[in-house]
Design brief:
By secondary structure, the chain is α/β, with parallel strands linked by helices. It has helices spanning 14-23, 26-33, 41-56, 60-75, 96-113, 119-134, 138-142, 146-157, 233-252; strands spanning 166-169, 200-203, 217-221, 256-263, 278-284. The chain starts with 13 loop residues before the first helix and ends with a strand.
Length: 288
């Protein structure tokens, strides 16, 4: 069974590299002070303390290597954490730990500055630091993204379908848009399918007549049917029009009975939701 497959991303542009380089260091402060504080504010403060210690000690080569590594880690992929917070963190798994290495060095620098040698005091300071790092970021543990809520919704709702039923949805990829949405669940390619081995999952045609498979058929009307971009509206307007039209086509293709519906989190990539989108699971009504 294949869960992942290669996908062609847009080419890396020089402007993307420059923008990512500019954002590489300031974004850490933004992520630390803007709710839900994905990066602990204490980590940024201690990281700055470590850089200051290197500068005072005139260890400029090491200071330069730390800064250049942080900048290049973002610039070389032309991406940053600013637009979508922690969602693109998968691109920077080798870079983010460097911040915490610096934070550890900053903590050590403060202990040295205070000439603290007592093991008890050092241990107490470490516990206090852990609490100071954890408490401001507690909201991050509660943040849910659109596709997470869609997954939870389907995991609960699909139990209502009989064995052998086919679950259909509007495709999200390879439909000629300016970029990948990266916001919403694609059921046919999602791990939620593993929970329901006796159901079939399929995508409706991207264009043309909506031809439904024979027999028991359900339709998942996902968050993509409720796009309402909060930024780059002009760029995403074709996507809004496409899903508005295609979702209406899917509904008009048959008589449906609503099995479940829910509002899901508006936190998705690229600021595509102004308000919580509504998702539904519909079952085709077959006349006797």
């Amino acid at each position: 069974m294949g869960v992942l497959r290669p996908h062609d991303h847009p080419p890396l542009l020089a402007a993307d590299v420059v923008d990512a380089a500019k954002a590489s260091l300031p974004q850490l402060a933004w992520l630390a002070w803007k709710a839900p504080r994905w990066i602990a504010p204490a980590a940024v403060v201690l990281g700055l303390a470590a850089l200051a210690r290197l500068a005072v000690a005139r260890r400029f080569a090491l200071l330069g290597r730390a800064l250049v590594t942080m900048v290049l880690g973002f610039a070389l992929v032309g991406r940053s954490l600013v637009p979508d917070e922690l969602l693109p963190a998968r691109y920077f798994l080798a870079v983010i730990p460097i911040l915490y290495v610096l934070a550890g060095a900053g903590f050590d620098a403060l202990l040295e500055l205070g000439r603290i040698r007592s093991t008890l005091i050092r241990t107490s300071a470490l516990v206090a630091l852990a609490v100071a790092a954890f408490l401001p970021s507690m909201g991050a543990f509660e943040r849910r993204y659109t596709f997470e809520d869609e997954t939870a919704f389907l995991a609960a709702a699909l139990h209502r379908l009989p064995d052998g039923c086919t679950v259909t949805a509007i495709p999200l990829r390879d439909i000629g848009l300016a970029g990948d949405l990266d916001c919403c669940l694609r059921p046919a390619r999602a791990p939620v399918t593993l929970l329901f081995p006796r159901l079939h999952f399929a995508e409706l045609p991207a264009e043309g007549a909506v031809e439904l498979p024979p027999g028991c058929t359900a339709y998942f009307e996902g968050a993509s049917c409720s796009l309402s971009p909060t930024r780059e509206r002009e760029r995403w307007e074709p996507a809004v029009r496409y899903f508005r039209r295609r979702c209406a086509d899917a509904r008009a293709g048959a008589a449906w009975t609503e099995l479940a519906a829910a509002d899901v989190s508006p936190f998705g990539s690229k600021g595509l939701f102004e308000r919580p989108p509504r998702v539904r699971l519909l079952l085709r009504t077959i006349s006797p």
